[in-house]
Write a sequence for this structure.
């Protein structure tokens, strides 16, 4: 049974993944977010809530104690966040990271030019790829809310194959890694509707 720390736990994908992991794995979840009173524990036995900012090194490190896998689903100052996460994980000795980025960070989407709005996503991915962590970077397409789990994965050196993807599909990739942490190790995965 894995202990999973979810960073940015009040975000859309994070909340979807929390529910999905509770339904599809037996993992214990530690939800990390700012202003923690916004979230209710969906399962008292398997979920705990920690209030914190990812850029607060002391709180982040403490939250990582005893965790097997970190799932980051953040926005904003992502390069600074990536540095803080890598440092905290190395300090605590928790090495398995799943980090949410975006399609397009390598200019890999056919017909679409790289846009500077993706700089924080590209820069944070580069920080993680340069680390010694056991990482998986997720590069999803645009989120949809249909319940279907249907997706195609593409590797870093392949063209992105699609445009949209359901939140459940992204959460399913996370759940598969939680169940088998060696899966997709040190890879950057494009995720589009299958
Ligand atoms: N929507 C799409 O179609 C799409 C497609 C591809 C990729 N993405 C990317 O996937 C990621 C997840 O998407 P989403 O829709 O779930 O995003 P979201 O709802 O905006 O969630 C991001 C979360 O990050 C948290 N956060 C930001 N800075 C933080 C910090 N310093 N410490 C702690 N938490 C912090 C925010 O917390 P607060 O609530 O406290 O601000 C927020 O809850 C985003 O980076 C998004 O750009 C989205």
């Amino acid at each position: 049974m894995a202990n999973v720390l979810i960073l940015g736990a009040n975000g859309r994908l994070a909340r979807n993944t929390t529910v999905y992991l509770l339904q599809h794995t037996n993992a214990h979840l530690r939800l990390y977010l700012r202003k923690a009173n916004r979230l209710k524990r969906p399962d008292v036995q398997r979920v705990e809530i920690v209030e914190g900012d990812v850029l607060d090194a002391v709180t982040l490190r403490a939250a990582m104690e005893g965790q097997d896998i970190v799932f980051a689903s953040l926005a904003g100052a992502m390069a600074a966040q990536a540095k803080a996460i890598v440092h905290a994980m190395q300090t605590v000795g928790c090495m398995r990271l799943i980090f949410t980025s975006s399609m397009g960070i390598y200019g890999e989407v056919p017909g679409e030019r790289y846009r500077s709005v993706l700089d924080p996503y590209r820069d944070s991915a580069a920080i993680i790829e340069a680390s010694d962590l056991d990482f998986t970077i997720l590069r999803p397409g645009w989120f949809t809310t249909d319940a279907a789990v249907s997706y195609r994965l593409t590797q870093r050196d392949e063209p992105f194959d699609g445009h949209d993807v359901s939140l459940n599909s992204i959460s399913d990739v996370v759940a598969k890694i939680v169940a088998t942490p060696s899966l997709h190790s040190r890879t950057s995965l494009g995720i589009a509707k299958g």
Summary: The pocket of NAP is lined by residues 8, 10-14, 33-35, 53-55, 73-76, 81, 100, 102, 140, 142-143 (CB under 6 Å). The longest helix spans residues 78-92. DSSP finds five helices and ten strands in the chain.
